[in-house]
Amino acid sequence: MTLDPRQASSLAPPSRASHRDPGDAWVEGSEGTRYWGRFGAAGVLVHDASRGVLLQHRALWSHHGGTWGIPGGALHHGESALDGALREAREEAGVPQDALDLHATTVLDRDVWSYTTVLARTSRPFEPRISDAESLELAWFPLDSVDTLALHPAFGQAWPTLRSMLGARPVVLIDAANVVGAVPDGWWRDRQGATERMLARVAELAAAGAPAATLELPGAHWYPRFEAVVEKAARDATAPAGIEVLRASGVGDDTIAARAAQLRSRGHEVTVVTSDRGLRQRIDEPAQVRGARWLLELLPG
Length: 301
Known about the structure:
Elements: H1 5-8, E1 26-28, E2 34-36, E3 41-48, E4 52-58, E5 68-69, E6 72-74, H2 81-93, E7 100-109, E8 114-122, E9 135-141, H3 153-167, E10 170-175, H4 176-181, H5 191-208, E11 210-211, H6 212-215, E12 221-222, E13 225-230, E14 244-247, H7 252-265, E15 269-273, H8 277-280, E16 288-290, H9 292-298
Parallel strand pairs: 3-8, 10-13, 10-15, 13-14, 15-16
Antiparallel strand pairs: 1-2, 3-4, 3-6, 4-5, 4-9, 7-8, 7-12, 11-12
């Protein structure tokens, strides 16, 4: 999509309205380098499996104008980096939030300023649209062609890491019976109810994501897929939105071991959650195994 030629040829920035946000200002580092966004900045790298990544050809009047980068900009006062990135993508490129599945985030930290890149996958097709004067063009590019563009310097430096992160597909596979049994809260009186309460908390974690360090992945934050294997008295546990429940017809350990091997064969980064010693020995590397306490400390509430 290309801007109207009369707008695209303009070298002057648009006039700022009187309601300009206080975040729209430069921050200067100790070495004299200036960064846009008093409260930091953020943007979204959108990946569509069939079309590639959505990039913005920056208006000529902007910082590093004429280069390609991602829709983004200064954060508003009190705004989270995630909310700011999604807002900027919507305002600059018409990216609908309900068409995105969050994947990961990474942060460029300059002490006095930071830039958060939100990586997201499309959950449905959409057509971007230029919504303000900050873009010359919006276009989808296959991953292999991004390096051929004149990239914004910071995006160009980050691109190799961002590309590798787009290729990662983490899955957390939970031994539900083992995790439920790790908390002596009377679960034995109602295994299904205890399992459903645990799964509800996992669904909240799936929506919030997990720190990259806990998954031994690069970047700052990830939104892995969560799967849980249930068995026996908890086999009919209700599955909340945001988590996939696998119902073992026999021994749960067999289902977990087989599923972990299947996911690895499909290229996923797998973290199996169990404190069961016998099951842990059945999980082949490079899948990771974490104890029930690891998950319980991540769960909200």
